[in-house]
Design a protein that fits this description.
The structure is a homodimer. By secondary structure, chain A is mostly helical. Chain A has helices spanning about 10-40, 45-65, 70-80, 95-105.
Chain lengths: ~110, ~110
């Protein structure tokens, strides 16, 4: 896996898929935050929400790594977690992502 | 200011006032969190909410210091910020809190 594999079109599609997944995950996170905010009954619920956001921020920061050397693994994880479909990654490059994702979903 | 000034009754009243202020401030914070959660439109709003909670947690942790040597200052600040009234601190001890609060509100 290296940069030379990525055509201009593949880079454009990869960026779009990456951003789509990020938006979906953040929209889902927003729903979770709203539900937790609504359910606050005592001060400890506030600090639990803070802990939750701290953990999610780290998780999201680690996950959305847009280095071409990492994208196969990133996309495989996003497929495994349901943020992208195989179809949405068609035309992005070789079969590494699909192979990686299939292994991930089996594990 | 030292522990010897605090009678059993004064300690009980101080604890009640302290907890009342904490509950009020957390209830207000809950309202702010719900409003911010409702207003999330893009991912950066999520991370801004996390920053906000981090700052508030530190502020609240620092403020609610229940050492008898600190209580005059703590109560003075709570009065200044509107979380307690002078009336709610009646019978707690000497006039140090009132004096401290009056100075704080002038500054």
């Amino acid at each position: 896996m290296n940069d030379t594999r990525w055509s201009k079109t593949a880079k454009k599609k990869a960026r779009e898929a990456f951003e789509k997944a990020y938006e979906r995950e953040c929209a889902d996170l927003t729903d979770q935050i709203r539900a937790k905010a609504k359910a606050i009954r005592e001060p400890s619920d506030i600090w639990n929400l803070h802990d939750f956001l701290m953990q999610k921020r780290k998780e999201v920061d680690d996950k959305y790594d847009y280095r071409y050397s990492m994208l196969d693994f990133v996309f495989a994880r996003l497929i495994k977690e349901g943020w992208l479909s195989f179809q949405e990654l068609e035309g992005i490059g070789d079969d590494n992502i699909v192979a990686e994702a299939r292994v991930s979903t089996i594990v």
